[in-house]
Amino acid sequence: MKRLDDHGHPFAHQHLFYPKAGHSIFPPFYPTTSRNGPFDLGGNPTDDAFAQADSWEKILQFLKDDT
Questions:
Q1: Per-residue confidence of the chain (67 residues) as pLDDT tens digits?
Q2: Where are the domains positioned within the chain?
Q3: CA distances from 20 to 26, 28, 29, 48 (A)
Q4: SS3 for the chain, per residue?
Q5: Predicted structure pTM score
């Protein structure tokens, strides 16, 4: 984010951070209890579900605002 700002990035950008969620954030309602096969991408079902729901609305709004 700092690098974008430092170089005058002309488009909107926002960093969404969910400290207890893992690296595997999907659209909402994707089962968070189904872990990622042989990969441990961190997080837990509750915090992953929150990150999915919270970020999805923000992503949709970002795309709407950008058109």
A1: 999 999 999 988 889 999 999 887 788 777 777 665 666 788 888 999 999 999 998 989 988 886 5
A2: 16-65
A3: 15, 17, 18, 8
A4: CHHHHHCCCCCCCCCCCCCCCCCCCCCCCCCCCCCCCCCCCCCCHHHHHHHHHHHHHHHHHHHHHCC
A5: 0.72
Which tokens is 16 given? 């969404």
- For residues 47 and 21, is the Cβ–Cβ distance under 8 A? yes
38-64 burial, b if ≥16 CB within 10 A, otherwise e?
A: eeeeebeeebbbebbeebbeeeeeeee
